[in-house]
UniProtKB/TrEMBL annotation:
PANTHER family: PHOSPHATE ACETYLTRANSFERASE (PTHR43356)
Name used for this protein in its record: DRTGG domain-containing protein
Subunit comment: Homohexamer.
Source species, domain of life: Bacteria
Lineage of the species this protein comes from: Bacteria, Pseudomonadati, Thermodesulfobacteriota, Desulfovibrionia, Desulfovibrionales
Ranges where the DRTGG domain occurs: 213-318
């Protein structure tokens, strides 16, 4: 029986993508796979029961069938956190161990999903490092590229986890940083005893969001071409510049939502004619009838939001980085990225499979 903990240096690093990609691959190879997430940070009531929302969706994809309390023995509701701060939650690891023993019974490999970073959950004594060491698991740690890689953190985790660290995955690496990553960072880490199991390149689809979801998350509403609100947004462009300059930037960016004031009909028209996936009009300003009609004809949705352009752009940046892996197309793409970029032979060797 093998156990694998999938953790990360920080939240929103791609843990669910890796858990699902690994689980689906191992199932395809004929292994029986168990799954649990010891600490859940996204409480949600589904069918009258309290689940961790992420764990619920991952279990659905992996087709496992654990009860909520076994799948996620600790769910960090506000009430739980208050009790933890008052030292009133008891031995949390005991519940985690019981759940792991139940899930892993009869399985070839059990994947344990982390929450946040490897030290998240320290306040209730259920952080990733402790879960790995007390359950005797192997660990894969993901580091997502964001301006740079967290090589200092990875070195610290190597010291803390020792032989429990099966390897690391460098995720979402920008194309212009790929050469430096492969030729400098990867050898540096390997020289210090850290196996690099894979380097996953940045894929715009993995950070994409549907127009309808975007409207919901921005607190806005779709006012035209509603039937096309399933279109995908991969990035965004702010349309506050002069229209000639805007056109130059717009041609370089595909699948970009255009964030612009509702009174800039010149920019609206360029964005519509250029097949932007959607327009996000700020300041609660509605477009004129010509723009609305053109939007319907070209089947490009328009979202109207209350906030100003600056604040909407900040929200968009966060959304595209942190949007959850829910859509089937993204799950398939994530699984393909894992299959294409991970060294499964080394991982199986580490797990004794």
């Amino acid at each position: 029986m093998a156990g694998l903990y999938v953790g990360a240096t920080a939240g929103y690093s791609g843990k669910n993508m890796v858990v699902m990609g690994l689980g689906l691959r191992l199932q395809k190879e004929g292994f029986s796979v168990g799954y649990l997430k010891p600490v859940g940070a996204v409480p949600k009531e589904i069918d009258g029961k309290l689940w961790d929302e992420d764990a619920y969706h991952v279990q659905r994809i992996l087709r496992t069938n654990e009860s909520p309390e076994t799948l996620t023995p600790v769910i960090a509701t506000h009430d739980f956190q208050v009790r933890a701060f008052r030292n009133q939650v008891g031995d949390v690891m005991s519940a985690v161990k019981d759940a792991y023993e139940k899930v892993s019974a009869g399985k070839d490999v059990t994947i344990v999903g982390g929450s946040g970073g490897m030290h998240t959950g320290r306040y209730c004594n259920a952080d990733g490092v402790r879960v790995v060491t007390e359950l005797g698991l192997k660990a894969v740690v993901i580091d997502r590229y964001s301006k740079e890689l967290n090589y200092d953190y990875l070195l610290m985790l190597k010291d803390q986890l020792g032989d429990h660290l099966a390897g690391i995955i460098l995720n979402d690496v920008a194309q212009n940083f790929m050469d430096e990553t492969r030729k400098l960072i990867v050898p540096f880490l390997r020289d210090r005893g850290i196996r690099v199991l894979g380097v996953i390149p940045k894929d715009p689809l993995m950070g994409a969001i549907k127009v309808c979801d975007l409207a919901d998350r921005l607190g806005g509403k779709v006012i035209s071409a509603h039937h096309k609100s399933e279109r995908i947004v991969e990035s965004f462009l702010i349309g506050t510049m002069q229209v000639e300059n805007f056109m130059t930037h717009f041609r370089r960016q595909k699948n970009s939502a255009i964030i612009v004031g509702g009174d800039r009909s010149d920019v609206h028209l360029v964005a519509l004619e250029g097949d932007s996936p959607c327009l996000v009009l700020t300041g609660n300003l509605y477009p004129n009838d010509i723009i609305l009609t053109r939007s319907e004809v070209l089947e490009i949705p328009i979202i109207v939001v209350r906030e100003d352009t600056y604040n909407v752009a900040k929200k968009m940046e966060t959304l595209l980085m942190r949007h959850k892996l829910r859509d089937e197309i993204k799950i398939r793409q994530g699984a393909q990225l894992i299959n294409a970029n991970l060294d499964f032979a080394v991982l199986r060797e580490q797990l004794g499979l």
